[in-house]
Amino acid sequence: MAESTSSAPFEESRFAALIYNPAVRGFFYQLLTVILVVGFVWWVADNTIRNLNAAGIASGFGFLDNRAGFDIAQTPIDYNNDMTYGRALIVGIINTIIVSIAGIITATIIGFIVGVGRLSSNWLVAKLSQVYVEVFRNIPPLLVIFFFYTGVLSLLPAARDSISLPLDFYLNNRGLAFPSPVFEAGSWLIGVALLVAIAAVVALSIWAHRRQMATGQQFPVFTTSVAIIILLPVIAYFIAGMPVSFDIPEKGRFNLTGGAVLGPEFMSLYLALSLYTAAFMAEIIRGGILGVPKGQTEAANALGLHPRKVTRLVVVPQAMRIIIPPMTSEYLSLTKNSSLAVAIGYADIVAVGKTVLNQTGQAVEVVIIWMIIYLTLSILTSIFMNWFNAKMALVER
Boundaries of each ABC transmembrane type-1 domain copy (predicted)? Predict the structure, then answer.
């Protein structure tokens, strides 16, 4: 009896110590969170399956193998309405990737030009850049898309009155017509030469960097790389017997024939996303340049460097370390804003998925596909930009 009385306070103190142990409490709350999340997901999934069964809708992704039965206006890969829903969704995914990459490249170039223009000592250039930023930054992207689709491209002349542009390009209310390449036997050699040229440029860049670190001597990497990228495929083109020709569009009495066409839906979405996102990028670039200490510019000027070299070799490299992280967010926003294409009928993953959803009723599966696609694109973009940011970071000893 005496032993049980004396051990009770000891047991209570051990229990209290266990409760107030930070590691035990942390494990308990994490376990509780996992149980609640799993329970919530199970409840949602069970409720969804019950509702689908009650509505007579089969669940699962087996519908992807069924015949699609609808056409898509712009198909970068072979597709017709006898192919499957899965093939149609792949077409939508590729269209999303194409417009996103093209928009990111164009928005970066325009954003850099406008951002530097806002800091120009020329009053007119600075004010025009400011007006551009203020106009596009304060308009919803959907309105910009509608502006180009209904207010610009739809007002262009018909095909028989197409506007002639240099290099056999034509512009009309059906889009932009341009010469399309026709690949014949032996054209694979050009592709191999291009890959070899890219590998050679990478090797040259690494060698030039190591050489500069060791000796301080610079090598003209950019001009040499451009020459390699152009010359190697051209040499392969002639060695293979000129296996690539071009199908050039020709303007007839009533229509354009030949060539390839970028439809007004793609053009509207591409222009709107590029110009809209460039306004935000311009402010990021302006902020990055202003973030470089003024003493760096003054020191470079004191060394007698030309203003262009000061910008290219001193200001921009240091500004990039400030610019890259927020630019990543803008790239992700542009990719996600491409889903607005559904408003004008461009066949991106959302528009194609919506058609599939309406025909099959597989709402849950289609939404899951949308989420997986955009999540994958965002993660891949973030991984690449984080790698690039690490490459541009200062090396600390």
Answer: 93-385
Q: How many CB atoms lie within 10 A of CB 114?
A: 24
Give one word for 393, left, alpha or beta, with left for phi > 0 and alpha for psi -120 to 50.
beta
Helix (H) or strand (E) holding 162: none
Q: Where are the domains of the chain?
A: 56-152+262-348
CB 182 within 8 A of CB 244: yes
Please, what's the largest Cα pairwise distance for the chain?
A: 113
Closest by CA to 331, choosing from 139, 106, 89, is 106
pTM, whole model, 2 decimals? Answer: 0.79
Element (H, E) at 180: strand 180-183
Interhelix angle for 85-118 vs 264-290, to 10°? Answer: 40
Dig out the tokens for 100 from the structure: 């996103």
For 56-152+262-348, CATH gives 1.10.3720.10
Cα four-point dihedral sign 205, 208, 214, 216: negative
Sequence-ordered list of residues with C-beta below 8 angstroms from that of 354, at least 6 positions apart, any chain = 342, 366
Torsion of CA 192, 195, 197, 201, to 10 degrees: -170
Q: Answer whether 211's CB lies under 8 Å from 205's CB.
A: no
Q: DSSP secondary-structure letter at 84?
A: B
- Please write the tens of the pLDDT for every residue from 216-274: 887 888 889 999 999 998 998 888 888 888 888 887 777 788 888 888 899 999 999 99
SS3 label, residue 152: coil
DSSP string for residues in 268-280: HHHHHHHHHHHHH
Count of H-run helices and E-run strands, the chain: 13, 8
Residue 191: name the closest of 199, 81, 74, 370 by CA.
199
